[in-house]
Amino acid sequence: xxxxxxxxxxxxxxxxxxxxxxxxxxxxxxxxxxxxxxxxxxxxxxxxxxxxxxxxxxxxxxxxxxxxxxxxxxxxxxxxxxxxxxxxxxxxxxxxxxxxxxxxxxxxxxxxxxxxxxxxxxxxxxxxxxxxxxxxxxxxxxxxxxxxxxxxxxxxxxxxxxxxxxxxxxxxxxxxxxxxxxxxxxxxxxxxxxxxxxxxxxxxxxxxxxxxxxxxxxxxxxxxxxxxxxxxxxxxxxxxxxxxxxxxxxxxxxxxxxxxxxxxxxxxxxxxxxxxxxxxxxxxxxxxxxxxxxxxxxxxxxxxxxxxxxxxxxxxxxxxxxxxxxxxxxxxxxxxxxxxxxxxxxxxxxxxxxxxxxxxxxxxxxxxxxxxxx
Length: 374
Ligand code: SF4
Prior knowledge:
Blueprint: E1 6-11, E2 13-14, E3 26-27, H1 32-53, E4 61-66, H2 73-89, E5 99-104, H3 111-119, E6 124-130, H4 134-139, H5 149-158, E7 162-169, H6 176-188, E8 193-198, H7 217-233, E9 237-240, E10 243-245, H8 253-259, E11 264-267, E12 272-276, E13 283-287, H9 292-296, E14 304-308, H10 310-321, H11 330-337, H12 341-344, H13 346-351, H14 355-360, H15 362-373
Parallel strand pairs: 1-4, 1-11, 2-3, 4-5, 5-6, 6-7, 7-8
Antiparallel strand pairs: 8-10, 9-10, 12-13, 13-14
Helix pairs in contact: 1-2, 2-3, 6-7, 10-15
Bound molecules: iron/sulfur cluster.
């Protein structure tokens, strides 16, 4: 039984589907009755998950993602966080209060919503912006206005919360100048954390049918590198492939737990969790299908369960761990698998001795590491 276990909650609603998105979310107009029903089901799912898999675990971090969690509105988010308050307040093994992150989009994150979050201990607001430039946003089929983030960002930072913004590179009509301008504006809004994602377009999404509007791959890489350079010049530290923080305290502790393969459970359609037994190096993946109807049917949604063997978890620990600048947690790795990383993938580590290089050229490093595990 894990001593500590983070919690992820998926809110699968969006006002409209963005043309590049392949996350599980469904278009939704704000409606208290539906939201209320979803929140109640989600709370029942969390209770069941914890009772079965992590009854005594403290919750060092909670991440409410989506979709668009701000569509919960003030009443919905208050009901959700009030329902979770007993487990968040439970004895924690860590000498710090739980980190609570909520994703939002600026249009639905009104003052009442933000105030409800702030009063209930949310520590981080993650605003999905992608680009402040109207043409880039329109080209990617992102529908809300680029002016929105200012109000929400100002309210949040003035009330002492930590602000993260999501930006994206590789959008139609984007230039290096526009990326630098996006970053300047994000910094002016007080972002202490920026996720800079390189757009990848899966075949099934609408933007794939307008592939000719996207920068070709060399140019797209140049755009991301220009963004990275601007962030580093502004004093941000790249602590993961796509994540940059102004200071260590601004890093997302919840995501670091994923990258280090610490235990977490997730609830909601498309959410998943991973629990690893430190004694055997084996574990469980708990997940819910991408199906809101199925999640809402029946008294309590139950996750599907997949058993994970040792080799799978060694590979996942390497895959996730080297995304993080500090690499996998070596002590935890040894405790679980009885071997040090330099015993498991000695040749790949010798070929890529530099940490930063391993992170920058992650795919190539992983190919070497996985070839060694076969
Ligand atoms: S707001 Fe986010 S989750 Fe929703 S459709 Fe757009 S990219 Fe996807």
